[in-house]
Task: inverse folding
């Protein structure tokens, strides 16, 4: 289909949703993608651009002039427009902004660019439907028709006072069912959820999910509630997905946000640091074992069990930390530290006892000395208890200090537990067997 | 506040949002919670019940009669109502349904109960605003006022033909801006996204996220598009959250959906199976090392490096599988298997080379034989390559066979890579050093 018929291709594309076209473009090479983009009108291409993979969007934008980008930007909602500009190199940002013809749009985008992307201000759009409390229902409906042209979906109508301060909301449904001569002041609902512009994006997501909101107004501050914008649920879906992806990757030992299709170099930068951490942990356990070298003569099997002990310590630690990290994220970690400690110890005792019995059974089958397999079982239980405690309390401590506890999952916990575990294993074995 | 003043407590509670009251109740004991619930009216309590923690809701429902539950159910939307009934023991389900007074509501709930909870039918609600193409705008507005009473939020108005088949949609905005004598048939938008009732819930979530939809209509089948219900974005947010939590827990070696505050017994059942898997893996490596026992005389340090090798194999495997599992979930794993294989090998060579150089440096510092540290570096590199390949291809193969690839992350990959890694390590060391 590619290099043949302009008209045919265009009619074909017109039938597709922009998200589908974006998916097709992601598969094409740059030259082909540019060809398709130039063919379509800017209303469609601006939506397509937003749906493209970030790397591909960057490449396409490089091939467009500042003026062309500005034309795309004019078609976008202010939040998407600001996001797209923020991705450009700094010197191009100014050039593109200067090319935006609509002055209001330009001012709004410039305002949004000032906010950090992980606060409410970075998520909000300026497009919203706003009415003054002094208006009548009839006047309101008339004006809403004007405002709504710029707003793709009307979620809620926000009611403000003369100082532009948010004082309540109005549902379209209420507006339709009200009599046309009524004043807005008489029919609006004064209880309205809102967030301030510097609220953390994750916190906004939590609030919207908790109260089942589809849009939330953003105000300047809790004291001075000047209405600045609104955040819609589709942006929150993206925040939740990114957050989940990030935690998942950290648990797997991948920093930075990478995807399967990123370059080898990007993937290496995200993965190698954690592997080096693991390497140092492994070298640490080489030291520990060397210091117990004398046990090699009488109890060489101890050394055969070290990978088992390390694996147990690692697995238990990751389980404990994952549960705590999720609990912290959902605000459901309650109760005192002491009761949590007792619970982890109890849990580890049960798990440890079952696993210990399996080790002793294995010892029987393999005809090991009972005394020796008992030693392994006991040290393994101790390792499991300590690993569970480390896995539980490291994230809690990090969280209390304001550090994202998710970084303590995965390789971090595994590595520290490997070293601790192997040390403890030999230490206890020495106590019991006395070598 | 608790056992003192009914009236005061009630006025206090009236100021709270139901989600906040639910949070407070989750903290109270059952007796206190029941006291508060009986105090409030059923409109509020039904919402509170839906927000309660699942375990607590179960306890509260046990303490209510079938008639009382039926009263709560009548206040809920059909989707929430069906979810709540589905949680009850089977014999109570019938009793509660029989007590629902509103016949339509009862029929709708019974219909929804028939669907599996992880398909579109299990997510949809019967509440929606539906208009026939033959209506006029004026007649439509009149009737919508009636229908909208039952619907908390009007997202879209669905247009159906005489056979109740979905033929398009109408936005409230368009309706307001249209002239009152126009026919719906003239103003509706015929392109409408929909899902069929048996579509997988995750698939529905993907579609809604991709096309930025806030609600999607559900039809009987792709051929016979009878409109059955609609799914709203807030339910999808829950699906996405659950899905992310599940994948995260599987990567950490936790099966079943558990939380930090679940009982020790529940936590054990979720965690112990994976630990037992890890134990068998560890015992496997005991076997492997025993078979290379003769190396102990000349190269005992090899055994000191086994935890390092196991950790590397585990970490690399988890990284690779996590990236692939996320890629599969987001449908971005493209290209041929061969190119993916080459990429993983390239990536592992880079990572392996850097880590190998570090090991050789460590060897210098520790005054190890160059020949020996070189052996360790080379075997480690091989282990890293194989671990990356296993981590990448096991999820891909599972996915091709229709098995959730997420189960192959975490302990599963770690354990199999531990065994493979240690075996390969000794095998290659033997080839080079010749013991």
Result:
């Amino acid at each position: 289909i590619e290099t043949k018929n302009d008209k045919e291709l265009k009619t074909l594309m017109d039938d597709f949703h922009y998200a589908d076209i974006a998916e097709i473009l992601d598969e094409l090479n740059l030259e082909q993608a540019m060809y398709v983009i130039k063919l379509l009108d800017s209303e469609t291409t601006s939506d397509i651009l937003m749906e493209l993979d970030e790397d591909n969007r960057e490449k396409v934008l490089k091939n467009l002039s500042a003026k062309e980008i500005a034309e795309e930007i004019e078609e976008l909602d202010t939040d998407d427009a600001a996001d797209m500009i923020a991705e450009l190199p700094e010197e191009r940002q100014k050039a593109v902004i200067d090319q935006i013809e609509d002055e209001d749009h330009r001012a709004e985008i410039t305002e949004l660019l000032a906010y950090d992307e992980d606060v409410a201000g970075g998520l909000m759009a300026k497009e919203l439907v706003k009415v003054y409390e002094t208006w009548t229902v009839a006047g309101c409906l008339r004006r809403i028709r004007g405002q709504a042209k710029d707003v793709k979906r009307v979620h809620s109508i926000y009611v403000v006072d003369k100082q532009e301060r948010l004082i309540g909301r109005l549902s379209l449904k209420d507006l339709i069912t009200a009599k046309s001569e009524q004043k807005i002041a008489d029919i609006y609902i004064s209880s309205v959820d809102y967030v301030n512009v510097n609220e953390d994006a994750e916190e906004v997501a939590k609030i919207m999910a908790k109260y089942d909101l589809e849009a939330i107004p953003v105000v300047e501050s809790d004291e001075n509630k000047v209405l600045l914008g609104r955040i819609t649920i589709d942006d929150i879906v993206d925040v939740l997905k990114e957050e989940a992806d990030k935690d998942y990757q950290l648990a797997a030992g991948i920093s930075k946000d990478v995807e399967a299709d990123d370059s080898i170099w990007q993937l290496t930068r995200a993965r190698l640091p954690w592997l080096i951490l693991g390497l140092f942990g492994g070298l640490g356990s080489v030291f520990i074992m060397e210091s117990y070298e004398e046990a090699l003569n009488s109890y060489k099997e101890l050394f055969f069990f070290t990978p088992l002990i390390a694996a147990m310590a690692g697995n238990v630690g990751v389980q404990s930390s994952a549960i705590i990290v999720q609990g912290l994220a959902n605000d459901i970690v309650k109760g005192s530290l002491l009761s949590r400690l007792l619970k982890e110890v109890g849990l580890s005792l049960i798990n440890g006892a079952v696993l210990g019995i399996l080790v002793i059974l294995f010892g029987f089958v393999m005809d090991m000395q009972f005394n020796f397999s008992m030693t392994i079982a006991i040290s393994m239980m101790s390792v499991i208890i300590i690993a569970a405690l480390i896995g539980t309390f490291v994230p809690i401590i990090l969280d209390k200090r304001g550090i994202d506890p998710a970084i303590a999952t995965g390789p971090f916990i595994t590595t520290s537990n490997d070293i601790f575990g192997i040390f403890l294993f030999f230490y206890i074995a020495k106590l019991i067997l006395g070598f």
Remarks:
- Strands of chain A lie at 129-132, 157-160, 166-170, 195-196, 215-219, 227-232.
